[in-house]
Structure formats: C-alpha cells, structure tokens
C-alpha cells in the first residue's frame, strides 16, 4: 500500500471527518488526544491534503518538532514542509547563537516572505516562536535582492551593507 492510498483511507475515518468538519467551521479550539507515534503527523498530513492554506504546527520541544518535520517530509512527498528553528545553540544560553541555525531560520522566513505557493506548512517549537522577527514591511525595505547575472554598483552595495550594520568576518570561526 502506498502512502497516498493510506492517507485516503485515513481521511475517510469518522474521527478524521469530524476533525475536518470542525476545521471548516473554524472551531476556536481543537484538541487531539491519544495520538501516539507518528499518528499526529499522519493526522496533520491528512488535513493538509484539503484546502487549508496555512498550517503552523507547534510541538512541545525541538526534538519532537524535528521528528514531526521528518515524518511530514516523508508523508507529503510533493509538498514543501519548513522547520523554523531557534537560532540559539541551547535554549538556556540566550547569548550563544548557532550560525547554521541563524541561516536556516533566515531561509525559512525568506521563503515565507517570498513564496508563490498557495499553502504554507511550518513546524516549530516554543523557543523558536519566542524569538523576535522583523515585520514584513521592514524586511522588504531592508532587503537587497541580487540574482546571478545581475549587474550592480559595488560601492552602492558596500554602502548598503555598512548602513545595515554589516561586519565583515570569516564565516568559520570554531571547529565542528
């Protein structure tokens, strides 16, 4: 049995039909209890197959969010699933940033800002949601798009970077 066949059967179950009905009626609160293992991911994937344009899945912690994200990527082969991480190395060390997580977070926010898809599917956890993010208007006004093959004034670009607090450093500054 292929995953899409399984999702079709799952979507026809009475509990799943009730969940979809509540979502269509825009119920204020919906709580699902008793989902074990990948059942949450399968339920979410079944809901995503219907026409609901935005999905934000908030899991209790980073590890659960990572598992949920991986499950959804495997189940929803043709859809893009995004994982919004916290940019901190450890949640209790608020001053220690992980550059790879900062980059991953920026890429997710950029995709949400510039996407042409009719849907958004973001998986995250509370620590990542607590970090402040620039609003869309500020982000757009402080973005300088450069594409391969574009010609631009290098002096203007350097001035633009300096005005926005760019500090030239080597990207790799610690082992591992």
- Number of helical segments with 4 or more residues: 8
Straight-line distance between termini: 42 Å
As residue ranges, the low-confidence spans are none
Mean pLDDT: 82
- What is the ordering of alpha helices and beta strands? HHHEHEHEHHH
Number of strands: 3
Largest sheet: 3 strands, parallel
Give the domain tally: 1
Report the helical percentage: 40-55%
Strand content: 5-15%
Strand order of the largest sheet: 1-3-2
Radius of gyration, taken over Cα atoms and rounded to an integer in Å: 20 Å
Q: How does the helix and strand content classify structurally?
A: mainly alpha
Quick one: overall form?
Answer: elongated
Give a description of the structure.
This protein is mainly alpha-helical. The chain has one domain (3-136). The protein is built from eight helices and three strands; from the N terminus they run αααβαβαβααα. The protein has a three-stranded parallel β-sheet with strand order 1-3-2. β2, α5 (99-114) and β3 (120-124) form a beta-alpha-beta unit. α3 crosses α4 (62-75). The longest helix is centred in the middle third of the chain and has 16 residues, at 99-114.
Main features:
176 residues, mainly alpha, three-stranded parallel beta sheet, 8 helices, 3 strands, elongated
């Amino acid at each position: 049995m292929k995953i899409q066949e399984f999702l079709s059967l799952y979507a026809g179950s009475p509990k799943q039909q009730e969940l979809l009905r509540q979502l269509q009626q825009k119920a204020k609160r919906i709580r699902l209890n008793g989902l074990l293992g990948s059942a949450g991911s399968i339920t979410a994937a079944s809901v995503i197959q219907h026409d609901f344009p935005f999905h934000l899945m908030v899991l209790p912690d980073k590890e659960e969010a990572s598992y949920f994200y991986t499950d959804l990527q495997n189940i929803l082969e043709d859809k893009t699933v995004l994982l919004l991480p916290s940019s901190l190395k450890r949640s209790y060390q608020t001053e220690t940033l992980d550059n790879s997580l900062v980059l991953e977070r920026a890429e997710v926010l950029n995709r949400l800002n510039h996407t042409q898809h009719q849907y958004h599917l973001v998986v995250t956890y509370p620590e990542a949601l607590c970090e402040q993010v620039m609003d869309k208007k500020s982000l757009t006004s402080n973005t300088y798009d450069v594409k391969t093959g574009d010609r631009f004034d290098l002096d203007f670009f350097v001035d633009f970077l300096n005005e926005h607090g760019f500090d030239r450093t080597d990207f790799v500054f610690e082992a591992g």
